[in-house]
Amino acid sequence: MCEIVFVILHYMTLDDTIECVNSIRNKCGNEKYKIVIVDNASPNASIQALKRLYSEANDIELVLLKENLGFARGNNEGIKIAREKYSPDFVVVMNNDVVLLQEDTVKNIREEY
């Protein structure tokens, strides 16, 4: 079990996804978290780059969709995996162009909810 899972919907924009992942890693410190990156059937080579970068990362799971399911259904696939596999207290769904700015993001989520 982990406390929080971040679900990132990825579609083609590699740099945005990398920046998003780095912000999570930098702002979550020693918190118990996982990142589920859902590739929404990107037609470019971005998913191969993500595999090279994160295939051995303990904090990241890559999910490759066979077809583009759109925004809502793509996110729902990530949420389903997060809940079934990690049983988190919280699931945070975010676009890949979002970056975390606060050092205490997880603490704030825990206190607010």
Describe this structure in words.
With about 110 residues, this protein is α/β, with parallel strands linked by helices. Helices cover about 45% and strands about 20% of the residues. It is built from four helices and four strands. Strand 2 (about 35-40), helix 2 and strand 3 form a beta-alpha-beta unit. It starts with a strand and ends with a helix. The mean pLDDT is about 95.
Produce a short descriptive summary.
43% of the residues lie in helices and 22% in strands. The chain is α/β, with parallel strands linked by helices.
Largest beta-sheet characterization: 4 strands, parallel
Helical amount: 40-55%
- Give the mean pLDDT: 94
What is the overall shape? globular
In whole angstroms, the N-to-C terminal distance is 18 Å
Strand order of the largest sheet: 3-2-1-4
Number of helices: 4
Strand percentage lies at 15-25%
Low confidence ranges = none
The SSE order reads EHEHEHEH
Briefly note the structural class of the backbone: alpha/beta
Q: What's the gyration radius in Å?
A: 13 Å
DSSP strand tally: 4
